[in-house]
Amino acid sequence: MTARDIDPITFEVVRNGLDLLVDEMALTVMRTAHSGIVKDAMDYSTAFCDRQGRVVAQGLTILMHLGSFPDAVASVLSKYEGRITPGDIFILNDPYSSGGIHLPDIYVIKPIFIDDDLEGFAGVVAHHTDVGGIVPGSNSTDSTEIYQEGLRIPTLKLYEAGTPNETLFAVIQKNVRLPRLVMGDLRAQVAAAHTGERQFLSLAGKYGAAALRRYMDALLDYTEDLARKEIADLPDGTFEATGHIDADNIDAGPVVIQVSMTISGEKVTVDLTGSSPQVKAGINSPLPFTKAAVYGAIRLVMDPGIPNSAGYTRLIEVNAPEASVVHPRLPAPCGARGITGFRVMDTVMAALAQAVPERTPADGDGGNTIVSIGGYDDDLNAFAFVDLFAGARGGRPTGDGPEGVAHPAANISNTPVEIAEVELPVRIEEYGILQDTGGAGKYRGALAQVRRVRSLAGEATLQLRSDKRRFPPYGLQGGEPGQGSWNILNPGESETVLTTLGTATMKRDDVILHTTASGGGWGDPLDRNPALVLSDVREEKVSPAHAREAYGVVLDDEATRIDTPATEQLRLSMRSKRGDGTR
Fold it and tell me: 3-state class of 380 per DSSP?
């Protein structure tokens, strides 16, 4: 594995100690944060980096944050070389000078010293409810330059030698709509960084700083060795795929994500040449986020037991053309860049499906929709309802796509209905899944989710970040595609169908109805076990008519039993109409 002085038992203790460290940091954030987007939706991540800024452990939160921490820490090391001291805490969010990924994601990074020697960094990134800009929530899809998106924070010292930078705190507080929530979440991040420091110093007290350095180096090498074996087992070749973002709010839409993935021996190169040029809309993905999406997709086909360290990324090269939606230049806006990161990951997964179909699921909802309703209540107090709607994955080689489980890139949740209604002028009037919407397959895609939200404020700005209407989730191995998403303002006779991306004005009692895309199916629907179809009918996920039309399964009049002879005859007829019996 590594040098002879690495004891395997101590190695496992240190490895698990680092994992515990970042999870304790994550729990600290969850317990002390103020906003729903952080404490309830859990849109944040924690990581521990070694003295060189390499990720050695990440908390169980958002996968696509993993690949961005090295760039953030690198900005600290380069800008403050020779000026990093005990008690310092750094802050940043700027994608163009500091390794940030969009302005709402603010990084707090604490260097950790032992005997005046820098030994590592405890890092926390959290999505803040608001950082200013042209829409409440600061995730505008209609912004045309980053200067419209809110407060840009270059890499700065939030604390210097333990002393808070009151000027910087004041500037942040005065430039956001919801200072109580933002400052509360920021202090939760600081508390989590202190937790990371305390846990690391405890490990150092047991094993010594020099030993911890060796074991962190060994952990990175160990991760690389495991990943090397995983990649070596993949078939060599070049695999290409094309993804799309509807981008129906701009003339440049749809946006194209082009992937050419080359597997050669023990290394993978992902080339994104051919992706759309950067656009005047807030969906451009900064390079650190794009790289994280690529790393995350490839990580999904590896052994889940491989440590979540940067060791495996050494074997993955990402080429992204400059001035494109996957590597924008200033002043390209990126407030809603998440949709592009999700699509990069989905498209890499589509390429992987050609290489390892037995490991790759069909396409899902395309990552969480963000519905933001913000403005001022009747007492002129600012508010921002920022919620994440997700939970429709594609069918898998081993089973149906799970409902209510977020995109694998982001282990996040929605804000509980009761909390949203108590804290904000909104009412959630519908929250459920829609029958017959999952892509048909041997293994069915997850059903679409529906959410209906009424605004109770006199006037508010609605901001939508959704996708996969024009380009619905794809099926694999003969599975049917999922259904597309919808945004409808005031559903009914006078309804207005809204674009997948964009803004609108909501008056008091206006309603936004959002339906997510559903998961694609995996495998031939006529190969689905009729017992599974019957189970879906009993659970009201599939209607008897859809069971017949999509799966060739005939039920009795009460829809309680399978008519086996009729099912066999119908499936034979359906296969015959397809021609040679294949899809």
Answer: coil
Query: What residue spans define the domains of the chain?
Result: 8-224, 363-523, 527-577
Question: What does R_g of the chain's alpha carbons equal in angstroms?
Answer: 25
pLDDT digits (tens, 9 = 90+) for 245-256: 999 999 998 999
User: Whole-angstrom Cα distance, residue 573 to residue 561?
Assistant: 21
Q: What is the 3-state composition of the chain as percent helix, strand, coil, each rounded to the nearest 5?
A: 35, 25, 45
Q: Given the structure tokens 């317990």, which residue do they identify?
A: 31
Strands 316-319 and 267-271, sheet pairing: parallel
Name the burial class of residue 386, with classes exposed (0-12), middle (13-18) and buried (19+) by CB atoms within 10 angstroms of its CB.
buried
Express each pLDDT in 421-448 by its tens digit.
999 999 999 999 999 999 999 999 999 9
pLDDT digits (tens, 9 = 90+) for 467-514: 999 999 999 999 999 999 999 999 999 999 999 999 999 999 999 999
Neighbours of 416 (CB within 10 A): 13
Rounded Cα–Cα distance for residues 371 and 302 (Å): 33
CB 552 within 8 A of CB 568: no
**Amino acid residing at 330:** L
Q: Are 95 and 286 in contact (CB under 8 A)?
A: yes
CB 485 within 8 A of CB 466: yes
